[in-house]
Design a protein that fits this description.
Chain lengths: 255, 640
């Protein structure tokens, strides 16, 4: 199959960048989208033009490294990661526009590669349970109702790709942050630190410059792992109840 | 060189406990004076970085991905073994030990494997405490399943995403230490060399992948947690970035390489669809719990999955159930893979390429209902449909073996130290626990065992015996290694040839798959050696890389890794040549029983091959570590 590719090229962060158009006439419907880009890159290298840089690693939809804003949608037309998207989802002769994630907090590094380290910093702010290695209770000591465990798992499947941010007109990271907050708010292991956790993670999210949530639910619609906006509601509840019942209030103030 | 495995004396079950007591300790107040470098942030690396930082050491951690959470452990699907015996079905530490050593075809050390089984129970406790959402029963307790060849249900899982959940657990523990200032994390940074000062590993050379800057880092010990080298085959289930560079450079600096030819071919992967194929996708082996593997009794070239439903039961050959009645579809990976290859070699393979067999769920769906099957395998079925366009609820899946894991790796002693003092290898990067074949759900177990529960003890013994003075990166050893790394990259950029890196990599991969894959023979291996030498020569004369070494340049990154894969490929072939027996994951055609099953040769080959680098284009020297079995009786594996 033949496709016309309109691809964002940008030499580095300070470069202005712009679209460049390429013709590819030997794509196959069985290729993954990234394999199609591999083929384009081989052509480009042979012609002496620098290949298009894009992030990718596992190519099985779980590492969260691939991105790409394809025809105006993060990860393209299907609700999956770009690496799992195949050319059979496109028409022969179609023009495909490929851009990097668009968000102030994800600056472009080169071509389609963006900097998502803001996500790591949000996780570092509180996305953990404070237990050291060793000295923990037996795994079956605390039974967890299956429904709760399943709900926590659904939140925990977030792959940190950033599609939610790219999809949102406000570039909000609420779905990403709420997925981790929810996982730990649901599980007994996360309960002791639930207040500090949500406060710190939200504060870091704001500090990174992500926008606010205005409930358009674009994030949920585009999330390749189907993370539900229920998590955002849960995070908001966690946040407000944490504000209203801080430990200082409970223990009579002061550290 | 004498290889000392440092396996403690005494009864098997007491070795680790005694050893832990005999290891020297670093005073809590002194731990902060020691720096440890951890390369790689998968299960082994992240768990080690977190645990060492918790103890008080200063850790620098490195990963080439944009975030440590992307490490390829994340893609492990099926589960993690632990001898908890929660199911009351007869499991025990000893049984997990026995199954693992038998599954590895008696090519691993008893002491190491027993320790692995012993600490397996702690891993589950640790992960649950971190908030890893394992699958649970309605009563709220943890669920288990039986997995790949095991006759007890000891595998803990989180739907088909166990690796993801375990890695995110270790990542979260590491994040806590990053926030705490005890781990300094370097993303998008690749290790290019180990620096040795006065005979000890004292640092590494890295490249900042965004700027191309070559940097030196000094420490008191270096941990390589850099995963396996399956990508030497070009097509494998590994992530595109997975590479051998760190381990290979360490090898060239004196670390012996153990059992390089031991690779695992996974039976249940999605077949290749064309020349553009860039990687292979694994379908979790757990699918074999409910799926039945078959091909038509009489060859039907090009048979499609949707037409398979019309083939009557009497014309189907459920070849695993037929040949191995007691294990059926749950035979170990190598047996399943080899049999799939055999029926395809007979011309009975299915699909467009004839290189596939069916994995059929229709009976399971009839028995348990679609809902139950969906709950167990939903995400795997979705993934399959995504990639192939076929719906496995309606027609059988098509599968074929693919390279998945490498049991070989840097040789380490019981303390996980390589032959270079202060240089450790953890997880898939070392050779230690799986012998010639790894059981399903044991890779996650080993990565976390090494990182959470072994290295925090053993590294103390080494550090306690050395002064805590830091070495400066201004020293000549660092400068020299930096210069070498820089000049190598500049050489690559300046070849300005005509072939892309991928073209060379594909050629190498095909050679390895053809001659050094599931089934090998002497003449094929000799052919492979010649071909690889040819690829190496041409690579350095004719590779084409655009752009410079001073910027983000992904082709240069690839070229730098492929150059190492080429050299490793030759060593794998040498190792395979020297091991003229069938064992574990590999079948040596000259060593077979009358009915065509693998025949091990314990008299001549019950040893670990450890290869010593002797200089560029010099033959490597083979050292043998004899394996001693005091507790298990060596038997030929039989799954009949």
């Amino acid at each position: 199959m033949k496709v016309t590719l309109k691809i964002w090229r940008q030499k580095n962060t300070s470069d202005k960048g712009g679209f460049k158009t390429y013709q590819l006439d030997h794509a196959s419907p069985d290729m993954s989208f990234l394999e199609m880009l591999d083929v384009l890159n081989t052509d480009l290298i042979k012609k002496g033009e620098e290949p298009v840089h894009f992030d990718h690693d596992c190519r099985e939809g779980i590492c969260g490294m691939c991105s790409l804003y394809i025809n105006g949608r993060p990860h393209g037309p299907l609700q999956t990661t770009t690496c799992q998207l195949h050319m059979r989802s496109f028409k022969d002769g179609e023009t495909i526009t490929i851009e990097p994630w668009r968000a102030k907090s994800f600056p472009v590094i080169k071509d389609l590669v963006v900097d998502r380290t803001a996500f790591d910093r949000i996780q570092q702010a509180g996305g953990y349970v404070s237990v050291n290695t060793g000295g923990v209770p037996d795994a079956n000591e605390i039974p967890i109702p299956k429904k709760i465990a399943d709900e926590a798992f659904d939140a925990a499947t977030c792959i940190g790709c950033g599609a939610c941010v790219a999809a949102c007109k406000n570039a909000s990271a609420m779905l990403f942050v709420s997925a981790k907050v929810s996982q730990f708010a649901l599980l007994p292991q996360g309960k002791p630190e639930r207040k500090e956790r949500v406060e710190r993670m939200v504060a870091q999210m704001d500090a990174e410059g992500f926008g606010s949530c205005t409930n358009t639910k674009a994030c949920e619609a585009e999330c390749p792992k189907g993370i539900s906006v229920t998590n955002i509601a849960r995070m908001n509840r966690e946040y407000y109840s944490s504000m209203a019942s801080s430990y200082e209030w409970q223990v009579g103030g002061g550290e | 060189m004498k290889l000392d495995s440092k396996i403690p004396e005494g009864p098997l079950a007491e070795k680790w406990t005694k050893h832990k007591f005999n290891l020297k300790l670093v005073n809590p107040a002194n731990k902060r004076k020691y720096d440890v470098i951890v390369v790689g942030t998968g299960l082994a690396g992240a768990s080690a970085a977190a645990s060492l930082a918790e103890l008080g050491y200063n850790v620098k951690a490195f990963c080439f991905q944009d975030s440590p959470r992307r490490a390829h452990s994340i893609a492990a699907q099926g589960g993690i073994n632990a001898a908890k015996n929660y199911q009351n079905d007869g499991d025990s530490i000893y049984r997990l030990f026995y199954d693992t050593i038998k599954g590895g075809d008696y090519r691993a050390r008893e002491g190491n494997v027993y320790r692995l089984a012993e600490v397996s129970v702690n891993i589950i406790d640790q992960c649950v405490a971190q908030g890893v959402p394992f699958a649970r029963e309605y009563g709220g307790l943890l669920a288990n399943r039986s997995f790949g060849g095991a006759q007890v249900s000891r595998t803990f899982y989180a739907r088909g995403q166990t690796g993801q959940q375990l890695l995110l657990g270790a990542y979260s523990a590491m994040n806590r230490q990053i926030a705490n200032g005890k781990v300094k994390m370097y993303n998008r940074t690749e290790m290019l060399d180990v620096v040795i000062v006065d005979g000890k590993a004292r640092g590494i050379i890295t490249r900042d992948l965004l700027t191309g800057k070559i940097e030196a880092h000094s420490a008191h010990a270096v941990l390589l947690c850099t995963g396996g080298y399956g990508n030497v085959f070009y097509l494998s289930t590994n992530a595109k970035g997975s590479n051998v560079t760190a381990a290979w450079r360490a090898h060239k600096k004196g670390a012996l390489f153990g059992n390089p030819c031991y690779t695992q071919i996974h039976p249940t992967c999605i077949p290749v669809s064309g020349d553009h194929q860039s990687k292979l996708t694994l379908m979790s082996e757990s699918l074999r719990n409910d799926g039945r593997v078959w091909v038509p009794k009489i060859a039907r070239p090009g048979l499609k999955a949707k037409d398979a439903v019309n083939i009557p039961e009497s014309e189907r050959d459920y070849f695993l159930e037929r040949r191995y009645p007691s294990f059926g579809n749950l035979v170990p990976r190598d047996v399943a893979s080899r049999n799939a290859k055999m029926v395809c070699d007979e011309g009975r393979g299915v699909g467009a390429t004839g290189l596939a067999v069916f994995l059929d769920f229709s009976d399971a769906i009839k028995r348990d209902g679609k809902k139950t099957i969906e709950a167990k395998y939903g995400n795997l079925f979705d993934m399959y449909q995504q990639i192939t366009g076929d719906n496995p609820y309606e027609a059988p899946m098509m599968i074929f073996p693919a390279v998945h894991y490498t049991m070989g790796g840097l040789w380490v002693d019981y303390n996980l130290m390589t032959t270079v003092p202060g240089l450790y290898a953890l997880g898939e990067a070392n050779f230690s626990d799986h012998g010639a074949n790894r059981l399903g759900a044991s890779a996650l177990m080993q990565g976390l065992a090494d990182g959470y529960f072994v290295i925090p003890y053993t590294i103390g013994d080494y550090l306690a015996g050395m002064p805590n003075e830091k070495v400066s990166t201004d020293r000549a050893e660092f400068k020299e290694a930096m210069d070498q790394a820089t000049s190598r990259l500049n050489t690559l950029v300046n070849v300005k040839g005509t072939k892309t890196v991928d073209e060379f990599h594909r050629e190498l991969g095909l050679t390895m798959w053809e001659y050094c894959g599931m089934s090998r023979n002497e003449s094929g291996l000799k052919t492979a050696k010649q071909k690889i030498q040819g690829i190496k020569e041409e690579f350095w004369k004719n590779v084409k890389i655009l752009g410079s070494a001073n910027e983000l340049n992904m082709e240069l990154e690839k070229a730098n890794r492929v150059a190492d894969f080429i050299e490793l490929g030759e060593l794998m072939v040498d190792d395979a040549l020297s091991r003229a027996e069938s064992c574990g994951g590999h079948f040596r055609e000259e060593s077979a029983t009358e009915d065509g099953e693998a025949k091990r040769n314990d008299d001549q080959y019950a040893y670990v091959s450890a290869w010593e680098y002797k200089g560029d284009n010099q033959p490597e020297v083979l050292h043998k570590e004899t394996l001693v079995f005091e507790n298990v009786k060596l038997t030929q594996r039989s799954y009949k």
